[in-house]
Amino acid sequence: MGQRDQYRVELRASDPAHWPAFLRAHSGLPGPRANVELAQAVADEGDPASFDRLIATDDEYLVFCGVLGLGRLLATGADAQTRTDIEARLRDHATDARWRVREAVALALQRLGDADLPRLLKLGTAWAANPHPLVRRAAVAGVCEPRLLTVPGAAACAVALCERTTTGLTALPASQRRDDGVRALRQALGYCWSVAVAADPAVGLPQFRALAAIDDRDVAWVVRENTKKKRLAKLL
Predict the structure, then answer these.
(1) The pLDDT value given to residue 1
(2) What are phi and psi of 85, to 5 degrees?
(3) Tell me: the pLDDT tens digits for 17-32?
(4) CB atoms within 10 A of CB 107
(5) How far apart (Å, rounded) are the C-alpha atoms in residues 123 and 141?
(6) How does 178-215 read in b/e, with b if 16+ C-beta sit within 10 Å?
(7) How confident is the model at residue 133 (pLDDT cuts 50, 70, 90)?
(8) What is d(CA 173, CA 30) in angstroms, rounded to the nearest whole number?
(9) CA-to-CA separations, 96 to 105, 112, 127, 176, 188, in angstroms, rounded
(10) Where are the domains of the chain?
(11) For residue 225, with 0-12 CB atoms within 10 Å meaning exposed, 13-18 middle and 19 or more buried, which class applies?
């Protein structure tokens, strides 16, 4: 039995009202890495009420778990109105000041992609058009996951998302480039391009190489960071 399955057994045997204490004790925080396996187990075993309670605590790790749980709800056949509501909540959490909460949104979107990839790609495309850089960051980080890009057309969509968000980055005035949200978007683009291109080099490499012609310091940084990634370096 893997660690995640073991956590699921322990959570199932406990009243959800007692989960916060258990989660805090096993969160891995403070520390460099939160316990993602436990958070995934919470998402597997929780229900809407338990996710809401975790989010309401405003404890970073508990919110992380609750937001990830929203991804499971989105992926498991909710009705249209509930899906719309959950998507709106995730979009709001995507702009959270805490990076772990933002990362929970990306993981939640990937849960949707595992269950219904076309829905994720449609949602990611819509979010990539959002004016908030952190919403755009969630879109590319959620979609640019190697396991999701093995389906024909998915990698092309990921490349298009990277291209659109990079173009949006170049349109920002210099006065906004140092904003935290913009820097987080740039950081995501610093690895997402390599994931998208590696999934379909025939589609992605010409688009990535075209970035070199753009006279923009942030785009130049994005190019440098991606070329350091082994998955892309071996293709260049």
Answers:
(1) 78
(2) -65, -45
(3) 999 999 999 999 998 8
(4) 19
(5) 13
(6) eeebbebbbbbbbbbbbbbbbbbeebbbebbeebeeee
(7) very high
(8) 37
(9) 10, 20, 15, 18, 16
(10) 1-115, 151-236
(11) middle
Q: Write out the two tokens for 203.
A: 């589609």
Q: Can you tell me the distance from the alpha carbon of 103 to that of 72, in angstroms, rounded to the nearest whole number?
A: 15
Note whether 39 and 65 are within 8 A (CB): yes
**Is-cis flag, bond preceding 133, omega within 30?**
no
- Least Cα distance to 39 among 15, 17, 20, 58 occurs for 20
SS3 call for 197: helix
Could you give the 3-state DSSP secondary structure of residue 171? coil
User: pTM for the whole thing?
Assistant: 0.96
pLDDT, tens only, 78-110: 788 999 999 999 999 999 999 999 999 999 999
What is the length of the chain? 236
Cα 101 to Cα 68: distance, rounded to the nearest angstrom: 9
Q: Both ends of the chain: CA-CA distance in Å?
A: 41
- One-letter identity of residue 147: R
Give CA–CA dist 193/82, Å, rounded. Answer: 32
Could you tell me the two tokens for 99?
């990076």
Helix and strand totals (H; E) in the chain: 14, 0
Q: Identify which of 172, 200, 199 has the alpha carbon closest to the alpha carbon of residue 186.
A: 172
Question: By 3-state DSSP, what share of the chain in percent is helix, strand and coil, each rounded to 5?
Answer: 75, 0, 25
